[in-house]
Amino acid sequence: MGLTVAQKLIKSHLVSGEMTPGKEVGLRIDQTLTQDATGTMAYLEFEAMGIERVKTELSVAYIDHNTLQTGFENADDHRFIQSVAKKRGIRFSRPGNGICHQVHLERFGKPGKTLIGSDSHTPTGGGIGMLAMGAGGLDVAVAMGGGTYYITMPKIVNVHLTGALQPYVAAKDVILEVLRIMSVKGGVGKIIEYSGEGVKTLSVPERATITNMGAELGATTSVFPSDEVTKAFLKAQGREEDWSELQADSDAVYDEVIEIDLSGLEPMAAMPHMPDRVKKVSEIGGIKVDQVCIGSCTNSSLMDMLKVAAILKGKTVCPSVSLSIAPGSKQVLNMLALNGALSDMIDAGARILESACGPCIGMGQSPNSAGVSLRTFNRNFLGRSGTADAGIYLVSPEVAAASALTGRLTDPRTLGEPVKIFMPESFIINDNMIELPASPEEADSVEILYGPNIKPFPTTEKMPESIEAKAILKVGDDITTDHIMPAGAKILPYRSNIPHLSQYCFAVCDETFPERCKKEGKGIIIGGANYGQGSSREHAALVPLYLGIKAVITKSFARIHCANLINAGILPLTFANPDDYDRINQGDELALNNIKSAIINNETAYLENKTKGEKYELKYELSQRQKDIITDGGLLNYTKENI
Ligand code: MIC
Ligand code: SF4
To answer: What tens digit of pLDDT does each residue of 571-630 get?
Structure first.
């Protein structure tokens, strides 16, 4: 039986396990990336492991999230990351060089390689034929040290593309359509693999938009084949030698097939507050718009920016709209500047931001009260923009630019003559903002610079035989890591200070949560389906750990967050009968009697509800390795004990 692209990538990197869906497989990791909001913690963890130099083919540390420097904290963390990178053999992408995923695609991504990154949008690399996955910082630290990365062998979903996109319909509309079909839970335990005649009509940046936002499906990753289009992109980046072909076998078998005719798609938008609340722009109608933000790792390529500039050229942004534009990388910004497109944007009244995540993670540009903000980003979770009552709509750059001019949600097809943009034959290449590490000989004299904002991370204990605690919090379905550990300009500078961060844990759902945890000293969280979707931030596990959370019991978990809980030594359990979720009230006294022995001996686990006098059967899906990690009190303890 032939193999799919994803299966070929897994097979060529398989270290342990068998490639049967649902079974754990260990993978060799060729490349890693970190960004600064998760990187400080990842490098603290790497340092705690005591490894002299990274063992990967390539590791890059990017600075792109915490670029608003309203105090010493972010600058100190950047200096820390820069010093670790220099000493430990990691390339350092300086602030201003761009968003990690955009820069990695341009300068480092290679078909056929594996990449893990401490950021959930690492699957952007799937656009160039990589097996690229988001992971917690600790998993990335282990991979940098040469350790294996473990995933549950996913099912492979084939999205079969036919036709070609019509003018003013974009790659964003393709992934919005997939989200509409599959939902934010639909990709859990799956890799989304694109194939069909339609593939060759899409450029690498367009493919990358689609694989990037596959993260919102909950998928392990998404991947495109590597073909002549990939080769042309790498050639234009001066890296033709990095190209290799990667195609699915003609007799490859997929677990599921979704057909999409690109010619039939229309401009779409994801409505507040979930990326799968997708409707056609024409269906939503011309709602009034207060803000438009263009950029983020999903839609900040040169092609996206050129389209926007062409739409804005010679016009003026509607007086009631604030338009901000953040080109994705220094390469993109520089090329816009040289060909005059930047001038078209400025002239129309756009507010140009630095090449960084910016508003996407609430680093400035929060909308007005109850404002409507159209964004070319990938997430519109409640409160993420920094304005609790704002409504965020996720749209393509074309819809964003057209709406910025009219002040209303606008179908760009009403603009008339389509803009024609082509990929350049060569990009401007200047890697002067990527600092190379010191040689092994020089590395000894490099000092690691710790700022005062860096506090030790929470200590973990070996798992006790039984756990007794209150249901300290009960939440519903689709809880995101933005609910658990919010980000934004005020909080992000404290990503290396867990005690400080803990004040904001679950603030979106229940402001009293941290205080109640401190009073009780321990607790169990009860959650619905798809608990922990979204970001890879391990802080959404480390902060609850600091607050005394011993177990999280849900209807189901999102992949990266579940791994982060295990890595932190917090027990992730699910209800055998999902209706039992309804039987528990916040505040109920709960007990997991002899849970440790049950897990070690593969016995059925039960949750006793002492308040109600009831008992519920629980499930756990833990490999032997994960059981050892949990019982050792987390991956750091486990790694130290096993080195
Ligand atoms: C995000 O888009 O939510 C982030 C910010 O990039 C996160 C990482 C983080 O929280 O630092 C992600 O996607 O993993
Ligand atoms: Fe940055 Fe937003 Fe992309 Fe996350 S989703 S990496 S915050 S641009």
So the answer is: 999 999 999 999 999 999 999 999 999 999 999 999 999 999 999 999 999 999 999 999
**Cβ contact 188:534 at 8 Å:** no
pLDDT in tens, 153-178: 999 999 999 999 999 999 999 999 99
Sheet holding 190-195, edge to edge: 221-223, 190-195, 155-162, 256-261
The 10s digit of each residue's pLDDT in 92-147 is 999 999 999 999 999 999 999 999 999 999 999 999 999 999 999 999 999 999 99
In sequence order, what are the beta bridge partners of 605?
618
Ligand 1, atom 4: nearest CA belongs to which residue?
535
Q: Based on the domain organization, do 363 and 492 belong to the same domain? A: no
Q: How are beta strands 614-619 and 589-592 bridged, if at all?
A: unpaired
* Pairing relationship of beta strands 614-619 and 571-575 according to DSSP bridges: antiparallel
CB 488 within 8 A of CB 601: no
| One domain, residues 142 and 214 | yes
SS3 533: strand
Q: Do the domain assignments include residue 424?
A: no
Question: Which CATH number does the domain housing residue 542 bear?
Answer: 3.20.19.10
Domain co-membership, 115 together with 15 = yes
DSSP state of 376: S
| Residue 58 is assigned to a structural domain of this protein | yes
Domain boundary among 264, 291, 325: 264
Is the shortest distance between the CB of 37 and ligand 1 below 6 Å?
yes
Mean pLDDT along residues 35-49: 95
Q: Count CB atoms within 10 A of the CB of residue 52.
A: 12
Using CA positions, which residue lies closest to atom 5 of ligand 1? 361
Work out the angle at residue 616's Cα, subtended by the Cα atoms of residues 611 and 621, and round it to the nearest 5 degrees.
130
Atom of ligand 1 lying closest to residue 384 CA: 3
Q: Among 101, 120, 122, 501, which is best to mutate for testing ligand 1, by the most ligand atoms less than 8 A from CB?
A: 120
> Which domain covers residue 36, as residue numbers?
5-264
User: 361 alpha carbon to ligand 2 midpoint, in Å?
Assistant: 6
- Residue 175: give its domain's CATH number: 3.30.499.10
Instruction: Select from 264, 283, 301 the last residue of a domain.
Output: 264
Q: Which residues fall within 8 angstroms of residue 545, CB to CB, at 6 or more apart?
A: 458, 460, 568, 569, 570, 634
Together in a domain, 338 and 259: no
Backbone phi, then psi, for 163, in 5-degree steps? 70, -165
Q: Is the pTM of this model over 0.85?
A: yes
Cβ proximity of 390 and 402 under 8 Å: no
Does residue 120 line the site of ligand 1, with CB under 6 A?
yes
Look up residue 311 and give its DSSP letter. Answer: H
Residues 54 and 162 in one domain: yes
Q: From ligand 1's centre to the CA of 514, what distance in Å? A: 22
Tokens linked to 582: 């309804």
Residue 550 lies in a domain: yes
- Active-site residues, by number, are 64-65, 119, 379, 535, 537
